[in-house]
Amino acid sequence: MHFLIVGLGNPGKQYEQTRHNLGFRVLDLLAGPEGWENKYDSLFLKTDEVILAKPQLFMNLSGKSINQILKFYPAAQLVVVHDDLDFPLGTIRIQKNVSAAGHNGVDSIITELGTKDFIRIRLGIDNSETRGQLQGDDYVLQKFTVQEEKIVNEVLLRAKDAVETLMTEGLDMAQSKFNG
Predict the structure, then answer these.
(1) Which residues, listed in sequence order, are joined to residue 82 by a DSSP beta bridge?
(2) Please, what is the Cα angle at 39 between 23 and 165, to 5 degrees?
(3) How big is the chain by its Cα radius of gyration, in Å?
(4) To 10 degrees, the CA torsion angle through 12, 79, 127, 91?
(5) CB-count burial class (<10 Å; 0-12, 13-18, 19+) for 7
(6) What was the pLDDT predicted at 88?
(7) Which sequence positions are flagged as catalytic?
(8) Which of 16, 55, 118, 150 is the most buried (most CB within 10 A)?
(9) Is the pTM of this model over 0.90?
(10) For the chain, which domains are there?
């Protein structure tokens, strides 16, 4: 069985280092910059073990891209890596079959696929010190501060390890090692 690992984010240089693009950054750690092709409205990379995708539609349309991929790889186990405003910066939460909880990208996936039965690796981005009075929609498009980026780099490496653990040791082991 293949895994389809999808990192959520927004396409374009202006969004590269924003809070909303943590999913893209995890996939960049998993695969590096080479070998990606434009396919299924995504940056797409397939190896013998895994399919990686970074949807190139905006966040709230991510489900359309994933739906296209799953038509060609229907047996793939979907794993979605994304930022999450419900958790503090640095937190990882691995869950399966849970609601979108207000995340527009995840909501798009659930709507397109007609199910919430997939694995999510939720990466916390909330920081009350930097958020201030910003609304969630504005906050997720902000870049991390220099101090936050140190935490982000650590969580990105942990998220990469979580994906690898999930693929080799299963959901239960990944949850017990990384949820916190």
Answers:
(1) 122
(2) 40
(3) 15
(4) -140
(5) buried
(6) 93
(7) 20
(8) 55
(9) yes
(10) 3-178 (3.40.50.1470)
